[in-house]
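Morning F.,

Quick status update on the modeling queue. The single chain you submitted on Monday has been processed. Sequence for confirmation:
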Amino acid sequence: MSLLEFDTLARKVLLAVELVDPATGQRIYDGIKVAAADAAGGPLPEPILNASGRFVWRQPNMVATVTVWPARLRIEPRHELPYATREIPLPPPATNPAVAHDGTSATLPRNRLISVVLWPTAAYPFENVTAVRGVLREAGDGSEPVENAVVQLATFVSDAWRPIGQGLEPPATALASITDRKGQFGVVLPDPPSPLRSQPAPPALVRVRLQVTRRVGDDVQVRWTSDAVGELPVAGIPRGRILTPAQPIRWDRLTDQ
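Structure tokens below.
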């Protein structure tokens, strides 16, 4: 029996959240505050940290027939950690998550575990991964940095770029970064699974483009780097290397196509 299943049966666990490092895949819990809010924005009780390093919310009423499922999560690392603060909407479960007095529930234990990928800052010590570290500005030299933009690395797979624009609040497991007040960001690309012996090794160069999502007035806009401008090498970037463009990325030169 896993720790999560034990918690579900013995402690009436409503929800468990695990935080995952974007590059190593390790579970992270030290120095990070995790808070939840209901649909009206009201704060829910603080979680406890269990023995497996997950943040756990217990059902407040042990004999409840209905319960409050968190509508939003806020992940807030200490400032010295190389992770950014992010907020995540949680869709309601497909079934009633309340745990009955006998420990039964319509919501299975695996549907109570939420994995959240932490977002790296520009200070993240990338090593042996494919990543881009850079600065985003409105225009040329002397222009204002772009703050609070969500930056992702999109790859060309099966004749299409993926991921497609995921908005300002991508899914919990999305790999992304958010620009700081200086416009700085650091974003990593997931490594492909190890090929079987009968399969060819992944190419040494991986074709990528930066996907930037930001709020402009009342609009949410998505733009990408383009081969025409050449912010990133057209042929691709070396797999397993960290690329730092020599010049800031300019928002006014990004394309919306």
